[in-house]
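Here comes an entry:

___
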Amino acid sequence: MRICMVGSGYVGLVSGPGFAETGNEVICADIDATKIERLNAGEIPIFEPGLEELVERNVKGGRLTFSSDVGAAIASAQIIFIGVGTPPRPDGGADLSAVDAVAKLVAERAEREVVLVAKSTVPVGTNARLKAIVAGAKHKVHVVSNPEFLKEGDAVNDFLRPDRVVVGVDADDTFARDLMARLYHPLCLDRDRLVWMDPTSAELTKYVANTMLAMRISFMNEIAGLCDKVGADVHSVRIGVGSDSRIGGKFLYSGPGYGGSCFPKDVTALVHTAREHGVELELADLTDKVNRRQKTVLFTKLSKHLGDLRGKHIAVWGIAFKPRTDDIRESPSLALMDALLEAGATVSAHDPEAAVPARERYGSRITLADDHYAAAKDADALVLVTEWRQYQNPDFDQLKKLLKRPLLIDGRNIWSGYGLRAQGFTYDGIGVRGT
């Protein structure tokens, strides 16, 4: 099958090579000519484990190409995926201008009956909106909603071995249904992963899934705050609660707040969509408010231990919002470092993958160290924000020699069982007693 993936950002750059891996001919198209030049030169603009090998293999196999001529790519395709960005507007809604532009181009350039698939995260009503845009096309354009559920850091595996594939298609649209079933058949050989529903339900499913996961995180972060006050240990609470089969143990870890490109944007978009229809989603709204408050917890703990932070030197381990990605969007580290700089502190930081976007954001306002131990040298405190593997069991004897003060703020509770207080450190986690 001939597929055009419009948008070579995170979604398109994983999904396009993923479809090529199962034997399809895929063109990843983007209006950003510089990005396409880099891709054609073998440069992958994002860090995602396994993606570079996936792209290289399918380019060599002749199944995957990149083009900045979006119109020509659309004209050659049977299925066109929309994988462009839908950034939040100031009011919390999603900016659909790029989505609309793709639909208009499909209406103009499609040379046969085609299926147009919305894979970008879009609000309820977008499917109907796209149908209206393509209604006057020369050839029939079928519109399908197929939201992505890719976890950054494990996106290639998520695409090739999905938990489920949600497809929103009109009940009487057998053309689109048959084409989508054939497209995803190689991913369903061991069991049927396709979940068919109407387009509106498919659009809503993505937002609801991410908001529910975000709720669990925000709830446990509130419980961690309570644990700090009453002397309980959030690890024990998490294990006790997660052992209930009705609840399960995932997304019950306390921390400095969630970040990334999905949860923050999708929670606010769901709240905005509901308000447009006269419904208040109070739990979803509070989930976002709790998360924003949680992103101040590390700064608050530093202030508790060090008092006035003006002139203090703080080391930060981890800038990406989670391990195995270079994505710093909405990262708790940014909230912490912004607050430290505003308070007059100096910041040295390390991240194994996110140094480039961090340098673009901060320039010379922070020191980006090539080595995580170098970042800790002469610091008044070390804050662990992102739980990269290499941070999880460091040489604490070396750290004690490097730090000006032996103060460790553990934003992920990774070090809570290491007996650090007995080793002479001041240790502070999030809702844990520590040792």
Summary: The domain at 206-293 is CATH 1.10.1040.10 (N-(1-d-carboxylethyl)-l-norvaline Dehydrogenase; domain 2). The first strand starts at residue 2 and ends at 6.
